[in-house]
């Protein structure tokens, strides 16, 4: 780390090159990993909040309504039979999870959908789906193969009891 | 007959994941494919992975041991215990991964409909720890914007269910 750059001269040059080396070491070995981990942990925390907010059917309905455009609290209340304080509570949860935001209009304060966290949650589910779908596509092939065999011939129960030459 | 249905994934509560998938085969066959090691070996695991260890003691109180190997040679082990078996309709087991803390409970239901079988697997994380670990491991694989399935996440049916009576 104490390496000095020959192209640099004087004390400032020495510090500058030291700093550059230090930064490179930090970025390569330490910061990048830490920032990376931090990002992953932050994302996981954000996802937790998103999924917790999405767990409630009323909140999902509010989001579904906002997906078609911004709406005021009064407008959001219309399809529901629940009270205004209850709606406000749900809106607060959604706001804390950054799933919705408030508009600038001081009178109406329309709420609108923030697509970012939803997209992130969605992407997580999509990845989860893909992992399983890979498995299930292979299972489709296997089931196809087993189905086209004589039911008594396929080895699902006891391979040893398979009857040779059973007609299809 | 290839792809008989798309897999849907939903998270009805923060601790549960529900997978639903239709298979173009009778229930008995699907049930066997999920419970017989010689069949499991042929499909279980993400694309490119292979099930190198697959031991199944299929009875209530019995268990299973799987080791999956990635194309790069990384291994991932998991084990489980069967809690409930109602062949060929339903199984309940608890499972855990070697590298992750905690356990999850998996309920697998098979429903036969017009010679196809609907699989519904409900995974309930018994601890926040394992759920977080699962989410984190999913996050580690980078990001790609995808709004395609937003509609699924915000199922329109929800609007009707909680809407005006």
Overview of the structural elements:
The complex is a heterodimer of chains A (168) and B (165). Chain A has helices at 10-54, 57-66, 73-77, 84-96, 115-148, and strands spanning 100-102, 111-113. With 168 residues, chain A is mainly alpha-helical. Chain A has a domain at 1-41. In chain A, 22% of the residues are buried. An 8-stranded antiparallel sheet of chain B has the order 1-2-8-7-6-5-4-3. Helices cover 21% and strands 39% of the residues of chain B. Chain B is of the alpha+beta class. Chain B has a domain at 8-42 and 84-162: Alpha-D-Glucose-1,6-Bisphosphate, Chain A, domain 4, CATH 3.30.530.20. The interface between A and B is large, with 55 and 61 residues.
SSE map:
The complex is a heterodimer of chains A (about 170) and B (about 160).
Chain A: H1 10-54, H2 57-66, H3 73-77, H4 84-96, E1 100-102, E2 111-113, H5 115-148
Antiparallel strand pairs in A: 1-2
Chain B: E1 8-10, E2 16-23, H1 27-35, H2 37-40, E3 50-56, E4 63-69, E5 75-86, E6 90-97, E7 104-113, E8 116-125, H3 128-139, H4 150-153, H5 157-162
Antiparallel strand pairs in B: 1-2, 2-8, 3-4, 4-5, 5-6, 6-7, 7-8
CA-to-CA gap between the ends of chain A? 77 Å
Major beta sheet, strand line-up of chain B: 1-2-8-7-6-5-4-3
**Fraction of helical residues of chain A:** 55-70%
Order of helices and strands of chain B: EEHHEEEEEEHHH
Q: Provide the CATH top-level class of the domain at 8-42 and 84-162 in chain B.
A: Alpha Beta
What is the subunit organization of this protein?
Answer: heterodimer
Q: What string gives the helices and strands of chain A in order?
A: HHHHEEH
Key traits:
heterodimer, A: 168 residues, mainly alpha, two-stranded antiparallel ribbon, 5 helices, 2 strands, elongated, disordered N terminus, disordered C terminus, B: 165 residues, alpha+beta, Alpha-D-Glucose-1,6-Bisphosphate, Chain A, domain 4, eight-stranded antiparallel β-sheet, globular
